Amino acid sequence: MKDLLRAHFEKIITLTDSEFEYISSHFTHKKLIKHQFLIQEGETVKNEFFVLKGCLKSYMIDSDNKMHVLQFALPDWWISDYHALYKQVPSSLYIDPVESAEVLVISLEDKEKLCNELHKVEHFFRKKTNLGYVGLQQRVLGLINTDARDRYEQLIKQYPALFQMVPKQLIASYLGVTRETLSRLYKNPK
Amino acid sequence: MKDLLRAHFEKIITLTDSEFEYISSHFTHKKLIKHQFLIQEGETVKNEFFVLKGCLKSYMIDSDNKMHVLQFALPDWWISDYHALYKQVPSSLYIDPVESAEVLVISLEDKEKLCNELHKVEHFFRKKTNLGYVGLQQRVLGLINTDARDRYEQLIKQYPALFQMVPKQLIASYLGVTRETLSRLYKNPK
């Protein structure tokens, strides 16, 4: 299962076998069943997760008990509550799998240690964070663009695999539209 | 004016005088008058900007010609269209000062060079991007939380200085509320 992690690192940096062995020794493997939380609101967050199988979602629950999806994470993606992780404040999010899933877990402490020990690992994580930042920028632009059809078309274009893996109800929550609006968008493509 | 830049780096890393001289030699100083664009929609983006004075805003213009503010940048903050910069696609944003402003400019090419040459500079920018990511995560949560009062209170708490520097109309655009709704929030604090 660590082949996926190595391929993931080697998209950006080159690693010797012994370097990869050393890096991967800081990860632990975890299987999750549906509804098994990785993070719950109010908790302290110490870890970051690399998705091997399945799809995870991070979301908030508002004061009316309504769920709002912040992010989906498919295989080869990272997920955590980064606000809670980096600022060491209690989590404002829940993270759990859409169906069953498998992840590799690394603690913030070990990630920082690896970044400190190996310049190229620091380079890798800077580049990954840049891409995460860009993804979030697009997420904000999607949210402030008031046209639901544009948001929907952009999501299909950006992440086609999501539509196979995630129930329509969660896609609607991510897009900030009702289930009925989403059905209309499906039935009447541009 | 480069004292602010040095202090900014030294919040995270320690630099010798010669290291800082070398780093700062990659920045150029730029004064901006109101409405002078740093970035316009459709342009290629090659640079990132560190704010010395004033306040910059990045925003999109939607198909109804309505402005939506993505981000404000006060002194000691960075701003660019990172999607356009990192993915080398045309910008979807405009960036200009709220009033006059001063920035330091660094090209992506020079930033990558510095990160490659000096591990601690790479460390610095990884940490800064982490914080930028966290800021955007909070921005998304603010947008998907439907309660305008919560969004308003969170912004006041997070960035009190904004309310002195930025016209109410731009604050309303950032929060995604009308000017009238914002006035009601001002007049009736919790």
From TrEMBL, chains A, B:
GO terms for molecular function: kinase activity. Transmembrane segments: none annotated. Pfam families: cNMP_binding (PF00027). Residues 31-116 form the Cyclic nucleotide-binding domain. Keywords: Kinase, Transferase. This is cAMP-binding domain of CRP or a regulatory subunit of cAMP-dependent protein kinases.
